Amino acid sequence: MEEWVQFADWQSQQASGVFHTDCPARTVLDHVTSRWGVWVLIALREEDQRFFELRERILGVSEKMLAQTLRNLVRDGLVRRTVEPSTPPKVSYGLTPLGRGTSEPLAHLFGWLRDNARDILTQQAAYDRAEETVAR
């Protein structure tokens, strides 16, 4: 609660709010929109998963980057880490209510991207052709 009061005090003092470089929300936004943060949040929308399941599902992520991303998202309160007492311990990850709230808009964005991918690729190709013409 103290952090929220500090954030509210800070925000009321800033003319530019979230656009200011010192805004605490920027750090969380960096975690959510990082290269792997987006994929972790979307992957966990369906069900809780263990580390190796996430690693196998999110192609291209290294163990180091996945661990760092999960650590940041857990610290931000978007992902919960659950340890089952067993030998060896079973650790799983799932979305918190905050994480679910974040993953919903991301899922809509990805749906929009999927639905408009053809038009986007067409625009990129047209741009690249125009740039080639200018470069000649």
Automatic annotation (TrEMBL):
Alphabetical list of SUPFAM superfamilies matching this protein: Winged helix' DNA-binding domain
GO molecular function, one term: DNA binding
Residue ranges occupied by any HTH hxlR-type domain in the UniProt entry: 23-121
Official protein name in the record: DNA-binding HxlR family transcriptional regulator
PANTHER family (UniProt xref): HTH-TYPE TRANSCRIPTIONAL REGULATOR YODB, TRANSCRIPTIONAL REGULATOR, MARR FAMILY
Keyword DNA-binding: yes
InterPro entries, per the entry: HTH_HxlR (IPR002577), WH-like_DNA-bd_sf (IPR036388), WH_DNA-bd_sf (IPR036390)
Record bears the keyword Cytoplasm: no
Entry keywords, A to Z: DNA-binding, Transcription, Transcription regulation
